[in-house]
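fold-stage: in
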Amino acid sequence: MSTADLHPLATGHIPSYVTQADGSDFLLTVMFIFTVVVIILIGVGYFTLHSIPEKLAHESNHPQFQLVGILALLALFTHNGLFWIAAILVAGFQFPDIGAPLRAIADAIRSLAPQPPADPDPVPSPEPVAQQEQ
């Protein structure tokens, strides 16, 4: 575009971000692509953050793995941080198994009890001898 084609009141220098007369606006296109990329990155970061408790529980083969997963999903869908904190705490700490010592005590007491007499082997009944035909 030569200076003869410009309007007499137009300045000699027009910044590159001003839209051309043909309607192409590269700044709008660049900002649209930037916004879409940022939204996708924020989503990936958000989902990665919410999967941390499940990854911790899975790596340590945690007995309450399903509970951690449910709490992480509740935190994801309700946007309630308390569920996520609870999932992290459950994944990070192993609850003591109270039932194991009680089962051991019950097995020890059961082994001290007198054993019932074993059933004697039943006497096998004599099988009839098949007579051979002559």
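fold-stage: in (second)
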Amino acid sequence: MPSRVSTRPSSPKLGERDDVNGLETWDDPIPRRSQWTVQDLCDAFVAGSKHHLSLIPQPPPREERARRRQERERSFLLNVALRKYATQNNIQHSELELVEVKARNYVFECPRAYLHYNILVRCPDGTHTVFFAEVDPERAGEEDVHLCIPLQDADANNNGPCFSCKHRARGLMHPTGAAYLGGHMETNFLDFELPDSSDDEYI
């Protein structure tokens, strides 16, 4: 029967490599104190961690994220809402111009969520009218626009039966006779905010 031959590589001789001088080896198994202290290892770990974190892209400041969110809402959610209103009223969408977002509130009623808006719109006759819009915050199709109509004089300073806006956006006006979906539940209105999807690239 053939004898077994060890394939374990031999360790370097003491003194062959500078980084093993003074350490335990196969030929010299007497343990000796390492030149590295615990503090040295801690410092090396901290330095390595800082270097790793420096390679991760940092999210933009809060103000920039808010600006991006508002621009995204103007470009998608609110223009879709105006397009649906124009279609329902036989108006060319290009004749309606979103001028300003005057008020905004995120309405959370588990498991549903809504966005309520007051927006200033330039109408085809050149006048400026405040609209109320209720949209789904997570989608951007016309079917996700629950309501988009101009407010009447009687709606001024009217929170309607919207408990969320009553607690969190007192200046946001609601239509008196129109059926919007969110805000009719008296719940514990915490400071919920719409997640900013622009942060996804920084996760």
